[in-house]
Structure formats: C-alpha cells, structure tokens
Amino acid sequence: MLRLVLVLALLGAALAYYAEQVGLAVGYPPFIPMVYWKYSGEHKYDLRVTGVNAAVKVKVDGQLNDGSLEVIIAQNGRQIGQSRRYKGRFSDIALFYVNPGLYTVRFKLQDARGYARLDWVSTRFEY
User: Fold this and answer.
1) How far apart are CA 98 and CA 49, in angstroms?
2) CATH number, domain at 41?
3) Which of 22, 41, 94, 117 could bond to 61 as cystine, CB 3.0-4.6 Å?
4) Neighbour-count burial of 107, counting CB atoms closer than 10 A to its CB (0-12 exposed, 13-18 middle, 19+ buried)
5) What is the pTM of this model?
6) What is the per-residue pLDDT across 76-104, written as a single tens digit (0 to 9) for each?
7) In this structure, is residue 37 part of a structural domain?
8) Whole domain around residue 118: which residue ranges?
9) Total domains in the fold of the chain
C-alpha cells in the first residue's frame, strides 16, 4: 500500500513539474471543460455555416487566474469581425454575423492557468 502511495505521489510531482515547465491543457471541448496550467497555444475548429441570415455563436464560461483567452472567427485565414479577449472570471455569448461558408473558430491562449468551458454553434435564420 505504501509503495502505491509513493508511486502516485511521484507521478503527481512529475506531472506538476511538466506543467510548470511546458504547460498543460486537459479536456475536450465542447463536451468536457478545459483545464489549463501555464498553457500557451491555440485550438482550431472548423464550422460550416448555412442560411440566409447566418451567424456563429460562441459561448465561453470560466475563470483564468493567469493569462488570457482570445476568441477569433476566421475564413480562409482572414479574421472576421473583432476578436474577443477574456481574463479573470468570465461568462459571455459572442455572436458573429457571417455569410454562408466554411469558417474556423480559433481559441488562442496565452499563459493560461484555470478552466474554461468552450462551446460554438452555427445558427441560421431563414425567413
């Protein structure tokens, strides 16, 4: 029993050391919230938008003790509209009005430590 506790403690210490040195992101959006530990990086998700008055709706909810989260909508590598940046405690629904087509939802993180729940969907309003 003591051997198991020592092995688990050693694995936990190694994980903490790795996270401090390199950064760590755990989770699977939109189903499981993301947990960040000194993480810098970018998540990209493709999204097809259809309809007459189409929009991309992005919901973010969480708390970052350090760092920032930026939400960007892009088409063919070009940014559409203005990006949104979040720090500290946040809960927001960002609505980007777009034309039908293929878009990329990008979540950029800079030295993030905390958690975030990320969800995105294309909406269409046909009259």
Assistant:
1) 8
2) 2.60.120.260
3) 117
4) buried
5) 0.83
6) 889 988 889 999 999 999 888 888 889 99
7) yes
8) 23-123
9) 1
Residue 113 inside a domain? The answer is yes
Within a 13 Å sphere around the CA of 24, how many CA atoms are in the beta-carbon half?
Answer: 12
Q: For residue 121, what are its two tokens?
A: 């969907």
Q: Would 12 be classed as within a structural domain?
A: no
Retrieve residue 80's tokens: 């559409």
Residues listed for the chain: 127
Q: Is 29 helix (H, G, I), strand (E, B) or coil?
A: coil
> Whose structure tokens read 């499981």?
32
- Torsion 52-98-61-121 (CA) sign: positive
**pLDDT tens digits along 11-46:** 989 888 888 888 888 888 888 899 999 999 999 999
